[in-house]
Amino acid sequence: MKRFHGGGVSGVVDFSVNTNPLGPPSLVEEAVAWCIRRRVYTFYPDSNYEELRQAVSSFYGVSRENIVVCNGASEALSLTVMVLRPKTLVVVQPSYGDYDLLCRALRIKCIDFYMSEVGEGFRFNVEVLLDMVKKLKEPLIVLTNPNNPTGLVLEPRVVEQLITDVSGKAWILLDEVYSELSGYKGFMGRSEFENIVVVRSFTKTLSIPGLRIGLLYSPNKGMVRRIDMARPTWNISSIAECTLRRVLSRYAEELWKFIEYSRSYIVEERIFLTSRLRSLGYKVYDSKTNFILLRHDWIDTISLRDALLNKYKVLVRPAHTFKGLTRYHTRVSVRRRKDNELLVNALGELVKSS
Ligand SMILES: Cc1ncc(COP(=O)(O)O)c(C=O)c1O
């Protein structure tokens, strides 16, 4: 079964992965080198990840009994579904995730609930979703917010309404991996909602997709314990564990400053890309995060990707594999100004030549 994701091509200007355009902060790179010098890879990491969990929970200001550290957000998402074992998995689409694979592997019924396209955005009709969910037995609802691939961020009151209205009947899995880069507060630490699992990741925020560190939070300690029991014993490598523990426990304040600066950088570059691409005739959806979704009815996304790759060594993410999107949708990440100019020029020439 093939999985379709961005990245994985070297020697290109990569707009297909949604990592922080500023790259990893030097603090992280120094910590990786420090951990390697100490040859931590010759030891097993602490199988309970006590110190790492402490560092992560202080960083987010939540209790460590409420979190599980995971091998990227991907593991957190899979573990949650495996442990909750819902009768039905409802995925709000378009959305990131290989949920169909999980549903097939675990023999769970998967239902897609589609947001509708309105103008330059997507609308999420919470009432219709609630009506549908009420008829289902033991459902788990997956909501990716900030949304990949649309860049939409739902208002917290809409998410609160959903969580409250299904309380006691359904669990909600909130995939919030783009929160830090979007300035979205999200539901980490919202202890009043017992039926949520929140997933976060350091992958995008610190631009470290190869280290593989994410986490999940739930106010429901029983659920956290069950998920923690289900994870592989050493699910995070000793290099990743050592790096993140060192950075979070010593330099948390610097890291938050870096994140804040990254956000303002992204906002500026997103405005630049959005306005330039709109003036070239591309439909650009309103995004609140570090990537944008485009529509280009005159060329399909695979031809567009190939043309950009062959001529300009620029890699974008065809978005037709996201449910609810078409072969005329493409996702691009917000990168540094020089790269963004390259993308704008390349897409401009593509318009002229078509
Ligand atoms: C919405 C969303 N959730 C989860 C992930 C997986 O993140 P990680 O690399 O931390 O496993 C991604 C990666 O693209 C994503 O876009």
Characterise this structure.
With 354 residues, the chain is an alpha/beta fold. The chain has two domains: 13-22 and 254-353, Aspartate Aminotransferase, domain 1, CATH 3.90.1150; 26-251, Type I PLP-dependent aspartate aminotransferase-like (Major domain) (Aspartate Aminotransferase, domain 2). The chain has helices at residues 26-37, 50-60, 72-84, 99-106, 126-134, 156-166, 179-182, 202-205, 221-230, 238-279, 301-312, 337-353, and strands at 13-14, 67-70, 88-93, 109-114, 116-118, 121-123, 139-144, 171-175, 196-201, 214-217, 283-284, 291-295, 314-315, 317-318, 329-333. α1 (26-37) packs antiparallel against α10 (238-279), α2 (50-60) packs parallel to α10 and α3 crosses α9. The mean pLDDT is 96. Bound molecules: pyridoxal-5'-phosphate. Pyridoxal-5'-phosphate binds at residues 18, 72-74, 96, 144, 148, 175, 177, 201, 203, 209, 214. The site of pyridoxal-5'-phosphate (PLP) has 13 residues, from α3.
Oligomer: single chain
How many extended strands? 15
Mean pLDDT: 96
The CATH topology of the largest domain is what?
Aspartate Aminotransferase, domain 2
Radius of gyration: 20 Å
What are the low-pLDDT stretches, counting only 5+ consecutive residues below 50?
none
Name the shape in a single word: globular
Strand order of the largest sheet: 2-10-9-8-7-3-4
Which bin fits the share of residues in helices?
Answer: 40-55%
CATH class of the largest domain: Alpha Beta
Report how far apart the termini are: 35 Å
Question: Order of helices and strands, N to C?
Answer: EHHEHEHEEEHEHEHEHEHHEEHEEEH
CATH superfamily of the largest domain: Type I PLP-dependent aspartate aminotransferase-like (Major domain)
